[in-house]
Amino acid sequence: MATSTRRAISLAAQLAALAAAVAGVLYAPAVVDLFDLMQYTFFAAMCILALSLGFIWGFGGILSFGQTAFFGLGAYAYAVAAINFGDSTPALALAVVVPGLFAAALGYFVFYGRISDVYLGVITLTVTLILFNLVNSTAGDEYRIGAAALGGFNGMPSVPTLNMPFDPETILEPEGAWLATAGALILVYVLLRLILASRFGRVAVAIRENETRAALLGYDPRLYKLLVFVIGGGVAGLGGALYANWGAFVSPTIFALSLSAEIIIWVTIGGLGTLIGPVVGCLIIEMLVARIGAQQAVNANLVLGVILVGFVLLLPKGLVPAVRDVALRGLKAVARRPRLPVGVEAVPAEKPSVAE
Amino acid sequence: MAEIVPLLQTRNLTMRFGGVVAVDDVTFTLGEVELRCLIGPNGAGKSTFFKMLTGQLKPTSGAITFRGTGVAGAASHEIARLGVGIKTQVPNVFNGLSVHENLWIAARRKNTPARTRALVDEVIGKIRLSRKAEAIVGQLSHGERQWVEIGTVLAGEPELILLDEPAAGMTHEEVVRTAEIIRDINTAQALIVVEHDMQFIKMIAKTVTVFHQGRVLMEDTIDVVMRDPRVRDVYLGKKVAA
């Protein structure tokens, strides 16, 4: 059947792309200088944050204005645990678990309390602000968790960086940190792909499409949305831990609203409803911001605003879906032309031709 | 001899919206594998009645039992799991997904992947959309989307199927086909069908319940109901002493 052929082609293409990404990550330290490599490490951590929102918003239909709450909690959980344990391995695990549990508690009240989508945005925004103020006011020696002083608005300097798993003596060099961070990005991407292909992921997408219908078929939308939210929280937390590791520093500004807004811009520009879109959007914007930051002529936020308005007006679906649409149209045009080599027949994906 | 437990029973079911009584003291019984038609003018309370049966509305008072289990006020997904499926008046489908995915979601809840595949193929043939299996539901015609919704209900394999205006907006051939599907379903499953189209009712009906202003006006065979002057008056909007 054409469908199965198409699926096989799509799977092969995805595996090829994955292999290329892995090769790129492994090869990068050999060709990129150290400063750029560290810059890329930062981008990779941010891309994980972008994926967390791209997943819950694009596939769960949950627009959270507070992904930085989980990002920041992950960073702080990592810092506190790494200082106390002296080993980054359990710290990384806690950086996923703590924001995940926090998302579970918050999500329970939001979804089981049947709070509407608009208020979800307000609540997540408020929670981020509360966390910012809370952590900001923990200056002074009395605010410490074990050996780790929270430091209030000064933040926590000299956060232990990543070491080899369960081997605190072997600290990762910047090359190792790059491999760990970019590797985590690929791992998260693959994991989310697998989740979306599973029964759970397909039902979650169906709930995004029509919550009433899903409930009338016997699925509990509250539970599915809660789980999607928790996964998003855990992923954002991992991104936060890798960010803290990158700078060996974490401060309350990690909960800043400007970053929360930026994630939404990444996802919107890259393409809502795709996984690669948020990653692409994040890379483009962050590279741009880094470039603009290097000169004094224009303000970065001004440029961001113009880009967002431009995209919403001209490419409302975002970059990745727009490119995909153009490519598909091109392929269909090619397929419609007579006398073409074999194999082209299987290409018109998405919508099968109605006239048969 | 033990008393026979009806498939579905409501007792003194009432739904008030502020001062408006949408469903007023309805006592209704449906047997196993029964096909019942529900008719009545707009605003008679049919859709509200369906919404209470499926947990979309919590009744103000009264009881609903499904095979002896009280379900009044239960959540939609809990009632669905007991075996009640519904096609709503305004089509509730997964618009952004393909026909196949819509049915897969419905069938997969209680089936293994292999059984799901077989069931989806069977249902997709039944609703005659095999050739459009990969089409996005939001881009189909209104009649086809109605069938997709009926298909998702069938793929859930419920014991009781509620159809709220299944023939609305369909062409004559589509209506005939829908009647065929309903008769086919009724060989194994019970149905309650709300419909305005009398031609359609005649094709499928045995027993008909007439709703008027939230109450049950009468309940009888299709022929008796059609001959009853009160029913005609109700449809013409005249005042009726029930």
Structural class of chain A: mainly alpha
Strand order of the largest sheet of chain A: 1-2
The coarse silhouette of chain B is globular
Mean of residue pLDDT values of chain A: 89
Helix segment tally of chain B: 9
Task: Tell me the greatest interface.
Answer: A-B, 23 and 35 residues
CATH fold name of the domain at 1-76 and 189-242 in chain B, please? Answer: Rossmann fold
Oligomer: heterodimer
Separation of termini of chain B?
Answer: 36 Å
**Tally of DSSP helical segments of chain A:** 13
* Second-tier CATH architecture of the domain at 1-76 and 189-242 in chain B: 3-Layer(aba) Sandwich
Q: Note the beta-strand portion of chain B.
A: 25-35%
Secondary-structure element string of chain B: EEEHEEHEHHHEHEHEEHH
Low-confidence stretches of chain B: none
Structure, described:
The complex is a heterodimer of chains A (356) and B (242). Chain A is mainly alpha-helical and 356 residues long. Chain A has 3 domains: 1-31; 37-255, no CATH class; 257-349, no CATH class. In chain A, 71% of the residues lie in helices and 3% in strands. Chain A is built from 13 helices and 4 strands. A two-stranded antiparallel sheet of chain A has the order 1-2. A two-stranded antiparallel sheet of chain A has the order 3-4. Chain A is globular. Chain B is an alpha/beta fold. Helix content of chain B is 36%, strand content 25%. Chain B has 9 helices and 10 strands. In chain B, the strands form 2 sheets. Chain B has a 6-stranded mixed sheet, sandwiched between helices. A 4-stranded antiparallel sheet of chain B has the order 2-1-4-5, covered by helices on one side. In chain B, β9 (207-212) and β10 (215-221) form a beta hairpin. In chain B, α4 packs antiparallel against α5. The longest helix of chain B is centred in the middle third of the chain and has 14 residues, at 113-126. Chain B starts with 7 loop residues before the first strand and ends in a 6-residue tail after the last helix. The A-B interface holds A 3, 199, 202-203, 205-206, 209-210, 212-221, 350-352, 354, 356 and B 54-56, 75-77, 80-81, 85-86, 88, 92-97, 101-102, 104-106, 108-110, 131-136, 139, 149, 152, 156.
